């Protein structure tokens, strides 16, 4: 693929939505031009491209994909060597639950000072209850067996973010499976490669490719 035709990914290293998009691009072996965005200093080129003005945003030759899950599915439909797309239908229901209900509780726990009228202890408890249900439904090392699926990959960055609000608290909850599930991703070569640090993008910069060659 010529450079001028290569997809462009606007990303932010720590964003859980961007993390899951990069994980899918990595496993699908889809090379993109990566533009690292600093959320407090969004360039006009990005704001003029992304309908939602949020990362990740994938710019194709004739399309802009502005939702992280859609980017994952696009990449995996190109190439899916790990069979991540092969999962039960309720996998999408779990993703929706984590993206909505759990993410809301996560934000109200992690950024509690922004929610003056919310009870941080209660919100954390409700988030933990969702994770307990996930653990109880796990059919193996992962949600649907002994190999990860799209669902595992899509929700992992949010569970990770919640766990690291207070890792000692999380670890002391006595998980039978979820801690090992989380560690399997955090310690994976795929995640380490996904989290390579890129400097903030500026329009005059030379192209940077992801994954790195």
Structural notes for this entry:
The chain has 213 residues and is an alpha+beta fold. It has two domains: 3-82 and 192-210, Glutaredoxin (3-Layer(aba) Sandwich); 90-188, Glutathione S-transferase Yfyf (Class Pi), Chain A, domain 2 (Up-down Bundle). The protein is built from nine helices and five strands. Strands 4-3-1-2-5 form a five-stranded mixed sheet. Strand 3 (57-59) and strand 4 form a beta hairpin. The longest helix is centred in the middle third of the chain and has 21 residues, at 90-110. The chain is globular. The model has no long low-confidence stretch (mean pLDDT 96).
Short description:
By secondary structure, this protein is α+β, with helices and mostly antiparallel strands.
* CATH top level assignment of the largest domain: Alpha Beta
CATH topology of the largest domain, which one?
Answer: Glutaredoxin
- CATH architecture descriptor name of the largest domain: 3-Layer(aba) Sandwich
Largest sheet: 5 strands, mixed
Helix-and-strand structural type: alpha+beta
Whole-number total of structural domains:
2
Regions with pLDDT < 50 over 5+ consecutive residues?
none
The shape is globular
Percent of sequence in beta strands: 5-15%
Order of helices and strands: EHEHEEHHHHHHHE
How are the SSEs placed, and which strands pair?
Layout: E1 8-11, H1 16-27, E2 32-36, H2 44-47, E3 57-59, E4 64-65, H3 68-78, H4 90-110, H5 120-137, H6 150-163, H7 167-171, H8 178-186, H9 189-194, E5 209-210
Parallel strand pairs: 1-2
Antiparallel strand pairs: 1-3, 2-5, 3-4
Helix pairs in contact: 1-3, 1-6, 4-5, 4-6
């Amino acid at each position: 693929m010529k450079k001028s035709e290569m997809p462009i990914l606007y990303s932010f290293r720590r964003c859980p939505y961007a993390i899951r998009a990069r994980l899918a691009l990595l496993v699908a072996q889809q090379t993109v031009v990566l533009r690292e965005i600093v959320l407090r200093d969004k360039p006009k080129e990005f704001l003029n491209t992304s309908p939602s003005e949020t990362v990740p945003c994938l710019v194709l030759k004739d399309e802009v994909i502005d939702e992280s899950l859609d980017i994952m599915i696009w990449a995996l439909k190109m190439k899916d060597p790990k069979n991540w797309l092969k999962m039960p239908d309720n996998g999408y229901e779990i993703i929706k639950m984590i993206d909505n209900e759990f993410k809301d509780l996560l934000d109200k726990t992690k950024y509690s000072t922004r929610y003056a009228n919310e009870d941080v202890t209660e919100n954390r408890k409700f988030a933990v209850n969702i994770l307990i249900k996930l653990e109880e439904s796990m059919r193996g090392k992962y949600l649907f067996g002994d190999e990860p699926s799209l669902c595992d990959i899509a929700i992992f960055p949010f569970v990770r973010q919640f766990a690291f609000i207070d890792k000692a608290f999380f670890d002391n909850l006595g998980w039978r499976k979820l801690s090992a599930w989380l560690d399997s991703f955090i310690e994976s070569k795929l995640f380490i490669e996904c989290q390579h640090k890129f400097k903030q993008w500026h329009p005059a910069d030379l192209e940077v490719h992801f994954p790195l060659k």
